């Protein structure tokens, strides 16, 4: 693949234990857990994750087996994962959630579906990205990048600059996906206003509306990289997660 131009923002993705993992008999108690407690490795652990494709789920399953754990990775799109856990709150299936960002982790936490947990590796990560009460902790920081066509004359300096200067020249993911939602949230958070609709100022909603209106929204099955590299269309820029950009460069 031709080399693309790239700049990025970041999203911390993490791991969290649901109440099912810490409680027997389906109790909804959220009593704090400790990494020192003995794990029952004979039981299958069901893990909901948006990080299963491209061999990632197989790798995690193999590593868990090496440590003596029996896990089942369930592949769920990032934007659907939190809603799935919440919908199953009275008949929980997942023991753990892996891979979603803070916005969706907070959504599950606020429904009192997570337990507090301090892993042994807590001192090895940036704790400013963790939940202050240890309901979830990050395991990676995933860049969310804007890629540009090799012949693009310049790269936008900010997501908000796309709408005002590059109308019709950029593609985005819709709000049904985790990447699209994370970038959308990163725009809105700049315009917080307690008196505004949903805590966002009128100016913020105007910027967000323009961002969507002037973009091409990728449809199911369409690729950011393919769209950007296709000289037959006007798309010069597109969003993608960091690891996806690296895979695209190799291909």
UniProtKB/TrEMBL annotation:
GO terms for molecular function: thiamine binding; thiamine pyrophosphate binding. Keywords: Signal. The keyword Signal applies. Residues 1-21 form the signal peptide. One of its GO terms (cellular component) is outer membrane-bounded periplasmic space. GO terms for biological process: thiamine transport. This is ABC transporter substrate-binding protein.
């Amino acid at each position: 693949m031709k080399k693309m131009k790239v700049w990025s923002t970041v999203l911390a993705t993490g791991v969290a234990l649901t109440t099912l993992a810490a409680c027997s008999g389906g109790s909804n108690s959220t009593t704090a857990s400790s990494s020192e407690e003995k794990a029952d490795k004979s039981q299958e652990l069901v893990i909901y994750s948006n990080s299963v494709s491209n061999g990632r789920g197989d790798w995690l399953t193999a590593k868990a087996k090496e440590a003596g754990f029996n896990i089942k990775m369930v592949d769920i799109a990032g934007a659907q994962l939190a809603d799935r856990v919440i919908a199953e709150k009275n008949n929980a299936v997942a023991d753990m959630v892996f891979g979603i960002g803070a916005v969706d982790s907070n959504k599950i936490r606020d429904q009192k579906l997570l337990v507090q947990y301090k892993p042994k590796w807590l001192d090895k990560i940036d704790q400013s990205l963790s939940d202050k009460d240890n309901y979830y902790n990050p395991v990676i920081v995933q860049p969310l990048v804007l890629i540009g066509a090799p012949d693009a004359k310049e790269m936008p300096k900010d997501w908000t600059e796309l709408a005002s200067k590059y109308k019709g020249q950029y593609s985005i993911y819709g709000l049904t996906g985790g990447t699209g939602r994370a970038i959308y949230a990163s725009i809105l958070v700049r315009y917080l206003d307690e008196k505004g609709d949903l805590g966002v100022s009128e100016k913020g909603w105007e910027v967000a509306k323009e961002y969507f209106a002037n973009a091409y929204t990728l449809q199911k099955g369409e690729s950011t990289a393919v769209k950007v590299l296709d000289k037959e269309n006007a798309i010069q820029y597109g969003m993608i997660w960091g690891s996806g950009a690296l895979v695209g460069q190799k291909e």
